[in-house]
Amino acid sequence: xxxxxxxxxFLDFGREVRKRRRALKISIEELGDRADLSSKxxxxxxxxxxxxxxxxxxxxxxxxxxxxxELFGNLPAFSAKSIEVGKCFDCVSPELQRAVLLILRGxxxxxxPSWVPAR
Length: 119
Fold this sequence. Notes:
Elements: H1 9-23, H2 28-35, H3 39-46, H4 54-64, H5 80-90, H6 94-111
């Protein structure tokens, strides 16, 4: 039986943002104003369609009135390999980072049983 691919951690981040926003009873638009981000962008993060940068995560946390670390409570701990990859990633140019991310996302999508390639 094929191993089920792990979901990317930013899906949990987006769900946590939505949960916190709803608990505060504020709209996506209001959170966007508070975080100085567009409501459309916040919606894509909440739906797991975007992998936000650290600075975006901090802006969202501030908009929610919480410490950024509180949004990471449900995320799995990073393995030694993940940390090593992150350190290597930070040492290359932004152009190479974009290329590597495209490759990794392509591999992840291709390994997902529910993913169907676009025609």
